Amino acid sequence: MKRLLIVLLFLFSVLAGAIWWLVEERDEVELGGGRLQVHCAAGFRRPMTMIARQYEEEFAVRVDLQFGGSGALASQLEIAGGDLFLPADASYLEAIRKRGAVLESLKVARLTAGVVVARGNPKGITSLGDLGRAGLRISLAEKSASIGKHTWAVLDEVGLLGEITPNVVVTKPTVNNVVEDIAIGAADAAIVWDAVVRDYSGVEWIAVPEFTQRAKRADLGVLATSDDVERARHFARYVVDSNRGRKVFDEMGFARPERD
Fold this sequence. Notes:
The protein is α/β, with parallel strands linked by helices. Helices cover 42% and strands 23% of the residues. The strands form two sheets. Strands 2-1-3-10-4 form a five-stranded mixed beta sheet. Strands 7-6-8-5-9 form a five-stranded mixed beta sheet.
């Protein structure tokens, strides 16, 4: 019995020491102010804005979010620098990783493109090929945006580019701008990421196999230009933590990357 008590006391002291170390580490790395610059694809505006505000409240760190098309943001990184980069397609991170610009990356979400139309689908669109019907007004993202790059590539791959492009009346720099065209009636149909549609009333999303079979993964990268790499890594892990950032993504309809 006495030996058991000694063992228990020893284990308790080890546990107490571990807890003390974690608290000290939290104070050093997670508290005490600071500022982060995050370059983020426009399609993640709603979840990342909420996650950033929660992080600011919890750790007293300012998180500045710059939203835009993934390609445009990637082009700006060499000049603008920053701490983290979240494009809507992991290929953008891989491209700058080859230049030594990415220290590490974490999986964030799985994105699937599809057709968005006005609620009730007044034009009766049921397939990707329907976008080639005469008289339809199509809005697509520019190729500088990840959704645009993906859209134009898939349309070409499946042999529909020549049929659909005559109906393209406008191209926009971000996926949000494209959905807005449908929401205000400026176009009859568009191609966008699935989860982004949830931010807009008056529209609905139609899954089409040409895109559901070609889902993309979004990764969050910690940049080599960061002035506070430990802080940037801490925020990146906060974003993917199942009880913090990942919970926000779940609530807003972003699929988990583990399903890839």
